[in-house]
């Protein structure tokens, strides 16, 4: 039972939540002057969750208390059929700092769906005027005219925001539709100006709205309204429109938020989402092909896209390195998601730029077999939850001729990267610096507070990045070792290599000899990418 009792007092924990946590995730605000005793009387479940998330100095306590919180939720909602703002706000705070548990587990999805269900049962998602015209659940029916408090409006917007931000990274949650009434709630908060943090609420929701639009543009699973689709503008026209909209939003940030590091991360991540799917080949201009060749034919300049992607990735990293390391432990879950996304984008950059763009960080640097093994310390999960699922989705193969053209485009791009310094990133140096800052987080907290800091989250994150660096170095060295003959090694990768070659002999009317340069471009890149995928299999974040 030791892991169920917080070490700090309720006063200290409430102060940590009010001053450190809710200032970055401002959808549940505790008014100044509210004592723990008062909050316990009016919002007992919310106080229980605040004790949990504010026990950040002791990660064991956070995870221990989470079991009691989940038990409370189960009994209250499923056994006692309770519906209350207290439950909704508590779940929202839990979701806001859920990255101290494994993000891929079904519990996050369950909690997010429960929050959406509570919003619907309490009728918080409908305009009060229209609410009187429809039947309501008995638990949510009001006696007289209904009005919305600002804390209810924040809760509604927070549920949408958390569901949307998690959906974009995991592709697991159904999107919660953003409504006109939500937009009215946003305007009401802006007009009321009850708390300074409401300005951040408005910014977070606005940037998430646009990020979701960008995601839908690149997704083959975009919503369909059943109406005949008008003629779509070209890909680059849409990208430029998104860029202008993002720039306008960013320029309109209130002066007191312009130095907000995490808000800048959200904007930079949205810029990355504009460009990276094109480099990944996930955009479908002809609904059939997923290649650089098809994008080029549709008017997309791969060189320009990569240049913008590189500049944005550099800006993201530069901004992140300015974030004070002591604030890492108070980071909300959406910001942590952006960090995970950036790590994925660094890997994407390496894969597109190629092994020749990776400069070894030191003479004689080699990656040991131990460093390249999957980490044996997975993030502990909530009790009784199965291991993380594989979230990767299979992609249909492109035709041989399209692959060949794509290889030529990629070869040309890589030549430009080698020749132009503005297209280069010291990827190994970036990983080193970020890992060093992760390792410094706990040390800085201990030095600042003079207390033990029993939370190794960022030490594990540093270990993860150092492993990523070792794997990139190993990939670069293995490809370089075969560069002289441009042939893949005859080892365990042969099965992958042979599988990738199979379509070559199935092209009607053509033989391998008809493509005299294929062995030094497409063939080698197929093996190179297969090797990259095998070596850089990331452990779950």
TrEMBL record:
GO CC annotation, single: nucleus
UniProt cross-references to InterPro entries, sorted A to Z: prtT
Keywords: DNA-binding, Nucleus, Transcription, Transcription regulation
Domain of life from the UniProt record: Eukaryota
Leader peptide range in chain numbering: none
Molecular-function GO terms, alphabetical: DNA-binding transcription factor activity, RNA polymerase II-specific; transcription cis-regulatory region binding
Localization per Swiss-Prot or TrEMBL: Nucleus
Name this protein carries in UniProt: Transcription factor domain-containing protein
Lineage per the UniProt record: Eukaryota, Fungi, Dikarya, Ascomycota, Pezizomycotina
């Amino acid at each position: 039972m030791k892991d169920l009792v917080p070490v700090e007092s309720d006063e200290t924990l409430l102060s940590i939540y009010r001053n450190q946590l809710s200032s970055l995730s401002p959808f549940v605000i505790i008014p100044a002057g509210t004592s723990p005793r008062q909050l316990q009387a009016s919002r007992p479940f919310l106080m229980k969750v605040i004790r949990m998330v504010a026990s950040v100095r002791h990660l064991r306590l956070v995870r221990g208390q989470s079991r009691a919180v989940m038990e409370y939720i189960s009994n209250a909602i499923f056994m006692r059929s309770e519906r209350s703002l207290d439950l909704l706000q508590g779940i929202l705070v839990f979701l806001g700092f859920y990255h101290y548990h494994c993000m891929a587990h079904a519990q996050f999805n369950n909690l997010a769906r429960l929050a959406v269900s509570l919003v619907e049962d309490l009728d918080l998602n409908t305009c009060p005027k229209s609410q009187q015209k429809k039947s309501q659940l008995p638990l949510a029916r009001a006696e007289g005219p209904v009005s919305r408090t600002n804390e209810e409006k924040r809760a509604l917007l927070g549920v949408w925001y958390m569901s949307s931000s998690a959906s974009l990274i995991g592709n697991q949650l159904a999107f919660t539709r953003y409504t006109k009434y939500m937009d009215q709630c946003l305007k009401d908060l802006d007009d009321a100006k009850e708390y300074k943090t409401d300005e951040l609420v408005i910014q977070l929701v606005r940037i998430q709205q646009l990020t979701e639009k960008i995601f839908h543009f690149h997704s083959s699973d975009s919503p369909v309204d059943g109406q005949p689709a008008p003629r779509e503008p070209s890909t680059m026209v849409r990208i430029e429109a998104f860029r202008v909209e993002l720039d306008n939003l960013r320029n309109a940030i209130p002066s007191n938020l312009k130095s907000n590091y995490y808000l800048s991360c959200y904007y930079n991540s949205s810029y990355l989402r504009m460009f990276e799917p094109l480099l990944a080949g996930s955009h479908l201009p002809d609904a059939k092909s997923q290649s650089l060749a098809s994008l080029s034919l549709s008017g997309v300049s791969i060189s320009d896209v990569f240049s913008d992607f590189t500049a944005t990735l550099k800006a993201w990293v530069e901004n992140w390195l300015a974030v004070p390391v002591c604030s890492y432990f108070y980071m909300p879950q959406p910001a942590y998601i952006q960090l995970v996304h950036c790590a994925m984008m660094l890997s994407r950059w390496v894969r597109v730029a190629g092994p020749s763009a990776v400069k070894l960080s030191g003479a004689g640097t080699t990656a040991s077999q131990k460093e390249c093994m999957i980490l044996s310390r997975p993030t502990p999960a909530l009790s009784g939850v199965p291991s993380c699922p594989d979230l990767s989705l299979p992609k249909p193969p492109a035709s041989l001729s399209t692959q060949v053209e794509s290889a030529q485009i990629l070869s040309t791009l890589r030549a430009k990267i080698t020749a132009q310094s503005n297209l280069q990133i010291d990827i190994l140096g970036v990983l080193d610096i970020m890992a060093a800052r992760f390792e410094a987080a706990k040390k800085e907290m201990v030095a600042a507070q003079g207390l033990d800091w029993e939370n190794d989250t960022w030490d594990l994150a540093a270990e993860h990045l150092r492993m990523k660096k070792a794997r990139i170095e190993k990939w670069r060295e293995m490809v370089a070792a075969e560069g002289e003959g441009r042939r893949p090694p005859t080892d365990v990768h042969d099965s992958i290599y042979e599988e990738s070659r199979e379509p070559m002999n199935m092209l009607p009317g053509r033989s391998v000899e008809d493509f005299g340069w294929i062995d030094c471009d497409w063939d080698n890149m197929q093996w190179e990418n297969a090797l990259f995928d095998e070596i850089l299999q990331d452990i779950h974040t």
